[in-house]
Amino acid sequence: MSAVLLRKHLTSATDDSFLYPKLTESTRSTIKISLLSSLQHETAKSVTRKIYDTISELAAAVLPDGGWQELLPFMLQCVTAQNNHNLQESALLIFARLAQYIGETLIPHLATLHGVFLNCLNNSTRGEVRIAALNATINFIQCLTNNSDREKFQDLLPLMMRTLTGALNGNQEATAQEALELLIELAGGEPRFLRKQIVEVVGSMLQIAEAGSLEEGTRHLAIEFVITFGGSKRSSSGDDEEVAAICA
């Protein structure tokens, strides 16, 4: 797994050890092909994680300049690989990282990504795929600077919440806690996205917080969501009043 062993040399874009720009075009092409092939065929989760980390960081360095044009079509193909849940999850996690690192590069693909996230949130039967889709969706929403672009993702919010409630109903509290942590990130970073459906969202969080059958950590995360949303500098005074009314 030479591609994984060379990770720090392929991804340290701000360091003298970043070898990629110094390689020949043929070698660069071989590395990229090897990484994508490894992602497709690797079955060990720990190794897969290193591969998609490497792909994400290398892509963040070269994709804005058109240095990996085949990557996005490959990832879209992976996300639709219904019989390979690990590959779906990996592709979604790469989308999540790219939205975090170079979100502006993904914005031209907004409509396509909306469809991808909707399909994975709505149709996947695997909790890890839905969590990865939730991660990618939240990171992408936060990278959007145009309010009209964010509005196009409003229809995904019920599905995002269903990722949480589905995990709870399936007694998968570890997965539910992951979902809560991601939603807390959204509440702190882009609370305006939640505004139109805040009654439903906060109501669900309060139900979780009051559910004595759930783990203490799960209930505390639900409370943290409400506090984070109410305390966000980007939420309006009207939002604060509405949250207070729901909590009353």
UniProtKB/TrEMBL annotation:
InterPro entries: ARM-like, ARM-type_fold, Importin_beta, TPR_IPO4/5. It is found in: Cytoplasm; Nucleus. One of its GO terms (biological process) is protein import into nucleus. Gene3D superfamilies: Leucine-rich Repeat Variant. Keywords: Cytoplasm, Nucleus, Protein transport, Repeat, Transport. GO terms for cellular component: cytoplasm. Residues 44-202 form the IPO4/5-like TPR repeats domain. It holds the Pfam family TPR_IPO5. It comes from the Eukaryota. The keyword Cytoplasm applies. PANTHER family: IMPORTIN BETA. This is IPO4/5-like TPR repeats domain-containing protein. It comes from Salix viminalis.
